[in-house]
Amino acid sequence: MDELKISKRTEPVMFSIRIDKSLVDFYDRLAQQTNRSRNEVIGMALEFARDKIKIEEER
């Protein structure tokens, strides 16, 4: 299923990461286009990716 469900957060936690500037620019533009904060857009993207990430077994 390829859909994004948005629900209320239960316990926000703050942390920092280092990412390429091109990613920051992308999420800044996306936030502006959707009238949401960059933090909200990145959080939604991380939540969406959570169920899409698969760990490959070692052969």
What does this protein structure show overall?
By secondary structure, the chain is an all-alpha fold. The protein has a domain at 21-50. It has helices at residues 21-34, 38-50.
Distance between the termini: 28 Å
Structural Rg: 14 Å
The ordered H/E elements are HH
Mean pLDDT: 89
Give the total of beta strands: 0
Structural class: mainly alpha
Proportion in β-strands: under 5%
How does the overall form come out from the CA principal axes?
globular
Low-pLDDT residue intervals, each spanning 5 or more residues? none
Which range best describes the helical content: under 10%, 10-25%, 25-40%, 40-55%, 55-70% or over 70%? 40-55%
**What is the tally of helical segments?**
2
Report the major sheet.
none
